[in-house]
Amino acid sequence: MTTLHTYAPPVSQLLTYGEVLKYDFKNSTLYLEKFGFTAEHIPELIRMVSDEELNKADSESLEVWGPIHAWRSLGELRNEAAIHPLLSLVTLLDEDDWFIDEFPHVLAQIGPVAIPALRDYLANPDYNASARSSAANSLEAIATQHPEVRDECVRILTERLAYSDPESQILNGFIVFSLVGLKAVEAASEIEAAFAGDRINKDWCDNWELVQVALGLKEPKKKLKNPDGILALLEEHHKKRSKPQVASGFGSAETQKKSGNKKNKKRK
């Protein structure tokens, strides 16, 4: 039996909905309006997101886009019941650049109710830095989309900078990126202390001067050539120094697709 026949309507309709297009994670209700999803469909949607057959389907097929439609639908449902199941998929789908890129925005769409679970995930040493960076990116996305909880998210991210084990050193680099993305000037002293205390892996983030410029604490030594500004310059600097990426920086950068059986899906 093929995957197509193991899902019931309306979830099964996602398998023939076709290639994904530009999508507004903040305001869209496209999937709810078109398919009428409710909380009772969450288990089936989660199953579709993690479906190995779909995630390895031919890139020219319609059903290969099903998991993306499914997690976008979960975001639109804005239901707390989807948070932990989605988090459980982070390590499973760590080679899927679509999931890594969009996961933080799905959680942000669900809303601030996801913060406690993300805080716990970020602090859990059972997960590696790659997985936990997705939680950091998600806190950044929530803080951006829901300004009323920005201070709480900044505090959670800043507290993690105190840890200096090898995994935390890598994670701290991504946390710095998120704090810069949030213009968290209030975290500057903790960021500086993390650099001074060797609590940031220098393969992932090594330039305190650029961080200060990005936070507006000092002027750049020379005029920036990059039209996208200091954030893009800092990220470019990171990419040049780092090993192949395991997660996105600033919560928005595309990650590199790892080699494997899964064919690349074309972006629109």
TrEMBL record:
Disordered, as annotated region:
235-268
Q: Which SUPFAM superfamilies match?
A: ARM repeat (SSF48371)
* Keywords carried by this UniProt record: Antenna complex, Phycobilisome
Q: Which Pfam families does the record associate with it?
A: DUF1186
Q: Where is the composition biased (Basic residues)?
A: 259-268
Q: Which InterPro entries match?
A: ARM-like, ARM-type_fold, DUF1186
Q: Any idea what this protein is called?
A: DUF1186 domain-containing protein
Say which species the protein is native to. Laspinema olomoucense D3b
